[in-house]
Each structure stands twice: as structure tokens, then as C-alpha cells.
Amino acid sequence: MKRVLVAAVIAVVAIVGIVAYAATKDEGAEAPALMATTLDGQSFDLAETRDTPTVINFFFASCPPCNAEAPDLVAVSAAHPDVAFLGVGDGHGDSEAETAAFVKKYGIPYPVVYDGNSAIAGDWGVTAWPATFFVDADGVIRDTIVGAATYEQFEASLETIQSGE
Q1: Number of domains in the chain
Q2: In whole angstroms, how large is the CA radius of gyration of the chain?
Q3: Model confidence band, residue 3 (pLDDT cutoffs 50, 70, 90)
């Protein structure tokens, strides 16, 4: 029994370490290019958000943690009209219609693109969902959250791109 418990603790510590590494590995790097068509047919180009702090959230509709954080992310976006937000609905087994239903379910007010073949996620190094990147006005990734986040966690990360730290 003790061996099983020790093995479980080691596994949890390893997972936490991997998630912590994944959540910080791109900080300080220039954000990758991101050009796509939104679900409502508009074009989105991350380069056009230069001079504006930007939050990019990668999700997929059938992801329980993505569903858990969606209401808080919507609330944070409403509280920060000076920040650009973009949702990237990953194909990850979901159709474009399922992504659109997710957007409607949570009343997501910001643009959302459908990444059917996970190419955008690949460009950004996303390996776990949800993943949220905080890009400052100079186009530099200042913070990343991997896994479901709360309103308070989103607010804390927003400080890193609004204060220029």
C-alpha cells in the first residue's frame, strides 16, 4: 500500500512540474503569427492587435476544464474592454458546429476561430487544454496559464500585460 501511495505522490509531483514548465516555457518570447477566419467570417490577424494587450485562449468544446473556466474568462473580457481577446476552438475531436455551440452557450463576446487541424495550437506549442496566453502590446508573451483558471488567476495574469512588467 505504501508503494502505491509513494508512486501516486511521485506521479502527481511530476505532472505538476510538467504543467508548471509548460505554463512558463514561452514567457518572454515573441508571440507567433496568428491569422485566421473567425466563426462569423471575419479575418483576424494578431499583428493588428499590436499596441493592445491581447489574451488568447485555446479550448475545445468537449473539454471539461475548458467549460469550467469559460464563464470566468467571459466575465474578465467584459471587465477589460481595453484588452483584445481571441478564442481558438481546437478541432481536438470537435466540429466547427460544436465550437460555435460552445461560443453560444457561454455568450463569448470576443472573436473565436476554429482550428480544425490544430495547426494554430501547434504553432503556439499548445499540448494541453485549456491554454491561455497573455501577450503584451509589444507582441511578447508575458504569461501563460495551462489548465482551467479562475477569474482571479486571469486578473493576476492580465496585470503582467497591462503594467508592462
Answers
A1: 1
A2: 16
A3: low
